[in-house]
Every structure is written in C-alpha cells, then in structure tokens.
Amino acid sequence: MENEEIPEFLSPKEEIVYWRELAKRLKQSYQEARDELIEFQEGSRELEAELETQLVQAEQRNRDLLSDNQRLKCEVESLK
Asked: What pTM did the predictor assign?
C-alpha cells in the first residue's frame, strides 16, 4: 500500500470511492494486526506464568535434592 501509486481520477466521485476503499482496507489491516498483537500478548502472559510455575517447582526440587545430598553425605561420614 505504501508503494501504491495514486491513480488519476475521472471524477470526484471516483476519487471518493478510491479513498474510502483504501481507508477500509487499511482499517481492516490495522484491526487484524491489533488482534494478532492482543492474542500474542495473552499467549505470552500465559507462557510466562507457566514458566514461572515450572521455575518455582524446579527450584524447590533443587533445594530438596541438595538437602538429600547433604543428609546422605553426613550418613556416609557417620558410617566410616
């Protein structure tokens, strides 16, 4: 649309129709892009929440494993 040349019009009515159609197409394009952006943002928020939950779970699992490791090291030392 940016590179679209403006035609020569034979009448004011023809020019009005041209500009209205162009405005209609641009508005539709804008609305589609806006809808895609909103959908992307919602998906991103959902993904971020899911990843945050997974991170919290992984951190807890890591703490549990470190604790188990320390406990087992102490147990090994006591058996020596």
From this structure: 0.66
**Alpha-carbon distance 65 to 59, whole Å?**
10
Q: What is the rounded average pLDDT of the residues 23-41?
A: 99
Mean pLDDT of all residues in 49-77: 98
Answer for the pair 18, 9: CB distance below 8 angstroms, yes or no: yes
Rounded Cα distance, 69 and 76, in Å: 10
DSSP-derived secondary structure for 9-77? PSSHHHHHHHHHHHHHHHHHHHHHHHHHHHHHHHHHHHHHHHHHHHHHHHHHHHHHHHHHHHHHHHHHH
